[in-house]
Design a protein that fits this description.
globular
Length: 392
């Protein structure tokens, strides 16, 4: 057990393990680090997807790629050819296994599983001290990747809640070359609902019911949408459930407060790791892990997530206000977004690599009037502030 280290990483989820993997790759050039994780074991509890751009990290862990993606509402459907930048998936069990194996290859990084923090970090001279169920740990620097406070209404502009099941169907019901990003369900109770379908064979797929709502929703809240979605997908065929997953992603969090000490930073989904307008987080977290590991290897303090450029924050903030104020328009907005002739623009936009031309073209592709009605709110300083006092 490393009781005195250079870095303590709080939380062994996607962000904590991604940073730990980078530090493990550095070997003797990297700082001594420990990851404190309360779970006693990892399970296949989630799925990370992203677009296969040339800069995508950990692509060797990808277990499935889709040549096309589609969006649908009623009788309308938009299909995007993304063979040049395929939509791809890393199952949690693959990522967790790779991280644990990488960390085990060096004694300079420890993964302390089943260890719970009993008191928050406190600074004592040049060292941070943390009390855990395994005793006291000390370090020069802290990287806190824990989720933060429990999701609640008003803490984000919207929440992207999802509940899904990976199923094995008795009949061939899926196209393993095409993923469904959004198959919209009827709007009810002022919330936007859609199915997210990731087929890995003609008989097997992950089917998720997803909702954009001011309120974070649990599996019971989403049970009706998921049941209806599964029935739609299997078309009367029998199926078995292989596993389930549930999550809640923030869409439009307030800017995180700056750290009062450069040796202590927050990172992960709750601290700028997720794209406000979509909830995509995996590749953003990988880019942050690269930058943070590079800083630590150079003897500098850890770094937090860089804020998005102003134009991206403004566009995402305006988009979220429209999604919240006019849920009935959401299907048409997303179909218009993905119907652009050049799919590379939307891929760059979703991957945080959009150029000024991409942003301008996307803005022109969307109907103007709902956005014009929401601009006064943005000028009043509510671009990404929580309303009513998610993305995934």
């Amino acid at each position: 057990m490393l009781t005195n280290t250079d870095v303590i990483i709080l939380g062994g989820g996607c962000a904590g393990l991604s940073l730990a993997m980078r530090l493990a790759d550095l070997r003797e050039r990297g700082p001594r680090a420990v990851v404190i994780e309360s779970r006693t074991r990892y399970t296949n509890d989630r799925t990370w997807c992203f677009w296969g751009t040339g800069s995508a990290r950990l692509s060797h862990l990808v277990r499935h790629r889709w040549k096309t993606v589609s969006l649908a509402t009623g009788e309308r459907r938009v299909t995007v050819d993304c063979r040049a930048t395929p939509y791809q998936m890393i199952p949690a069990e693959v990522f967790y296994t790779a991280a644990v194996e990488a960390i085990a290859e060096t004694p300079r990084v420890e993964l302390a599983m089943g260890e719970t923090i009993t008191s928050e970090p406190r600074k004592d001279g040049d060292l941070w001290r943390i009390e855990t169920t395994a005793g006291q740990r000390c370090a020069k620097m802290i990287v806190d990747t824990r989720p933060g406070r429990r999701p609640e209404r008003g803490a984000a502009s919207l929440w992207q809640s999802f509940s899904g099941q990976e199923i094995e169907c008795d009949a061939a019901r899926f196209d393993p070359d095409s993923a469904t990003l959004m198959s919209f369900l009827p709007t009810r109770n002022g919330r936007t609902s859609f199915l997210y379908v990731l087929p890995v064979s003609s008989h097997r797929a992950l089917v998720e019911a997803t909702v954009f709502s001011p309120d974070p929703l649990g599996p019971r809240d989403l049970a009706g949408e998921l049941e209806a979605g599964l029935a739609r997908q299997v078309g009367g065929a029998g199926f078995s459930v292989l596993r389930s997953e549930h999550g809640i992603l923030p869409m439009g969090l307030p800017a995180p407060a700056p750290s009062l000490d450069v040796s202590h930073v927050r990172a992960g989904v709750a601290a700028g790791g997720a794209r406000a307008a979509s909830g995509f987080a995996f590749q953003r977290i990988q880019r942050w892990a690269d930058a943070c590991a590079e800083a630590l290897a150079a003897g500098r303090p850890p770094v937090a997530h860089l804020p998005d450029p102003w134009r991206m924050r403004a566009m995402d903030g305006l988009f979220l206000r429209v999604l919240r104020a006019r849920p009935a328009l959401v299907p048409d907005l997303f179909l218009a977004l993905f119907a652009m002739r050049n799919p590379a623009r939307i891929v760059r936009f979703m991957s945080d690599c959009a150029t000024f031309s991409d942003c301008a073209t996307i803005a022109l592709a969307l109907p103007a009037w709902p956005f014009l009605r929401e601009i006064p709110g943005g000028l009043a300083g509510r671009a990404l502030a929580p309303a009513g006092g998610r993305s995934g």
